[in-house]
Design goal:
The complex is a heterodimer of chains A (118) and B (173). Chain A is α/β, with parallel strands linked by helices and 118 residues long. Chain A is built from five helices and five strands. The longest helix of chain A has 13 residues. With 173 residues, chain B is an alpha/beta fold. Chain B has six helices and seven strands; from the N terminus they run H-E-H-E-H-E-E-H-E-H-E-H-E. The longest helix of chain B has 17 residues. Chain B has one domain: P-loop containing nucleotide triphosphate hydrolases (Rossmann fold, 3-Layer(aba) Sandwich). Classes of the chains: A alpha/beta (118), B alpha/beta (173). At the A-B interface, helix 3 and helix 4 of A face helix 2 and helix 3 of B.
């Protein structure tokens, strides 16, 4: 079973995403701030690390910069902030697999995650 | 007394600025701006994260939020009595609330709007442009320094429509 770490400070959002992804057959671990996310990412052998853009103690980008090259996993951002496709392409050049915009349907989220982990 | 104009522009002159920032740097740019304006009463319109999250982000960066008045457009969950919760669809109500805060807070003050492009999820770009025009007019009439953040958006249609409402536009890398 593929393992996903989701770092998100909104517990409601995190729990909802966890249920969606678990129902799709993934094992999901949650972290609610950057420090916890970093710790779990370093320990966890995750296939995908989903990051919120803004977190209480550091940004999702800070986490990616700290471990993106050290912890082998796919990385994607989940955010409510719309960005241009050009910017997403630039993020992908930096090693980010995708940028998933909220709000999303359960089907959209699962399709995106399936595509990243295919 | 610290002066917001020291960051925003010429001394003793009200300024409004649109900061176009890479989405992954938004958090650090917001922290940077609020840190520089610390000590001055501010109105913070949160469009991307809840007031609770923004306050936690600022406090963990050792920034006092005592003089910040929040309008939370992300959740209707009331966590503090002095926070207004307004749906991001209700742009006229949001503009009225900003106007009311501007009148209520005496003396020097500033206005911060984070991730203005988030409004595009709920409104078309013409409606968002009208909102930005109204907000910048309200701020200008009352000499309130304004900082609006926006990551580059799809096709930049919105940014092209709102550039002119600001005294300056800064594109950060």
């Amino acid at each position: 079973m593929k393992k996903i770490l989701y770092v998100e400070d909104s517990r409601d959002t995190a729990e909802a995403v966890k249920i969606f992804l678990e129902n799709a057959g993934y094992e999901v671990e949650l972290a609610f701030d950057g420090a916890e996310g970093l710790k779990k990412a370093r320990e966890g052998h995750h296939d995908l690390i989903l990051l919120d853009i803004m977190l209480p103690d550091m940004s999702g980008w800070d986490i990616f910069e700290k471990i993106g090259k050290k912890v082998k996993a796919k990385y994607a951002f989940l955010s409510a902030i719309p960005v241009s496709t050009e910017r997403i392409a630039e993020l992908q050049k930096s090693g980010v697999s995708d940028y998933i915009m909220k709000p999303f349907t359960k089907a959209d989220l699962i399709a995106k995650v399936n595509s990243i982990l295919r | 007394m610290p002066r917001s104009t020291a960051y925003l522009g010429e001394k003793d002159k009200m300024t409004s600025i649109l900061l176009i920032t890479p989405v992954e740097k938004l958090q650090s740019d917001i922290i940077d701006v609020i840190r520089k304006l610390q000590g001055i009463p501010g109105i913070y319109v949160s469009l991307n994260k809840t007031q609770k999250s923004i306050e936690e982000i600022l406090q963990k960066s050792s920034i006092s939020t005592d003089k910040l008045f929040f309008i939370d457009c992300v959740t209707s969950e009331q966590t503090r009595d002095d926070v207004l919760h307004i749906s991001p669809v209700e742009l006229e109500l949001l503009a009225e609330a900003v106007g009311a805060f501007i009148k209520e807070i005496k003396g020097e003050k500033y206005l911060v709007i984070d991730a203005i492009s988030t409004l595009l999820i709920y409104n078309n770009d013409n409606k968002v442009a009208r909102f930005v025009k109204r907000i910048t007019e309200l701020a200008s009439e009352s000499n309130v320094n304004t900082v609006a953040f926006s990551p580059a958006t799809k096709g930049e249609e919105l940014l092209n429509k709102i550039f002119n409402f600001f005294d300056s536009v800064e594109r950060r890398q």
